């Protein structure tokens, strides 16, 4: 009887260990992530809420925001769902993004009140050098069909873009430049920024947003975002 009791006790202990192992939840987190910066370029919404299952709670982005909001957030790589909501929690955009491990992205929300759109841009530079500046142009102004971005110091660099397109990052020598945006059809000047400094090692996104016929906060404007976030670890 003692032998039988001992065997039964061992079996019960083993059984308990197995059940505990199965029932205990495991928080398995990937060792690396993708990284995403989310920008609002839709003048119809002053405030937007961004939600993903990866983040514990949603965060807010603003159409007229300061440089403090331009940050990259970790997100699971592979297929990640992102929802864009108004401050009244109405879903106005819902999409599944395909993201690569350790890569950096900019997610730009633009369009109109009736049709909210977005573009996912991969933030990558071929043969990056810390002594060089880089810029790209993004056209999100719906009532200007095509524009010319003109970056000028000693000679002009022209990027001609139709609506809802962007250029790749272009290397330039660091220094002060004028940034002009012309209507490609009429050659009239829409935006003219003088003596803007492009710093060594930084990437610049030059975004045309708002409406050519807009007033107040919806007026046409150029927003320039600078970042060196994802190259800080490059030596």
Provide a brief overview of the structure:
9% of the residues lie in helices and 48% in strands. It is mainly beta.
Care to describe what's here?
The chain has 235 residues and is mainly β. It is built from 1 helix and 17 strands. A hairpin with a 4-residue loop joins strand 7 and strand 8 (116-122). The longest helix has 22 residues, at 2-23.
Mean pLDDT: 85
CATH architecture annotation name of the largest domain = Sandwich
Helix content: under 10%
- The top-level CATH class of the largest domain is Mainly Beta
Coarse shape:
globular
Report the sheet with the most strands, covering strand number, pairing sense and barrel closure. Answer: 5 strands, mixed
Q: What structural category arises from helix and sheet content?
A: mainly beta
Identify low-pLDDT runs: 1-28
Order of helices and strands: HEEEEEEEEEEEEEEEEE
Topology, number of strands:
17
CA radius of gyration is 25 Å
Topology of helices and strands:
Elements lengths: L1 H22 L10 E7 L6 E5 L7 E4 L10 E3 L2 E8 L5 E9 L4 E8 L4 E7 L9 E8 L6 E7 L3 E7 L2 E2 L3 E4 L1 E9 L5 E10 L4 E7 L11 E7 L8
Parallel strand pairs: 1-7, 9-16
Antiparallel strand pairs: 1-4, 2-3, 2-5, 5-6, 7-8, 9-12, 9-13, 10-11, 10-14, 14-15, 16-17
Entry keywords:
Immunoglobulin-like, 2 domains, four-stranded mixed sheet, globular
């Amino acid at each position: 009887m003692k032998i039988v009791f001992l065997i039964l006790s061992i079996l019960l202990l083993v059984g308990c260990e197995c059940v505990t192992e199965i029932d205990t939840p495991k928080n398995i987190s990937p060792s690396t992530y993708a990284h995403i910066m989310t920008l609002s370029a839709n003048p119809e919404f002053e405030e937007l809420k961004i939600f993903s299952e990866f983040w514990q709670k949603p965060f807010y982005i603003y159409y007229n925001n300061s440089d403090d909001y331009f940050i990259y957030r970790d997100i699971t790589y592979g297929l990640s769902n992102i929802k864009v909501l108004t401050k009244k929690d109405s879903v106005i955009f819902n999409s599944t993004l395909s993201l690569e491990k350790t890569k950096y992205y900019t997610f730009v929300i633009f369009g109109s009140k009736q049709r909210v759109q977005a573009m996912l841009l991969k933030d990558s530079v071929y043969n990056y050098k810390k002594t060089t500046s880089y810029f790209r142009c993004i056209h999100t102004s719906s009532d200007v069909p095509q524009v010319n971005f003109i970056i000028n110091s000693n000679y002009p660099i022209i990027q001609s873009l139709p609506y809802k397109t962007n250029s790749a990052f272009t290397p330039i020598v660091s220094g002060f430049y004028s940034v002009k945006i012309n209507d490609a059809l009429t050659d009239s000047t829409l935006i003219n920024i003088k003596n803007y400094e492009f710093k060594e090692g930084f990437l610049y996104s030059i975004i045309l947003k708002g409406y050519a016929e807009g007033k107040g906060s919806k007026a046409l404007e150029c927003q320039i975002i600078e970042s060196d976030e994802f190259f800080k670890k490059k030596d």
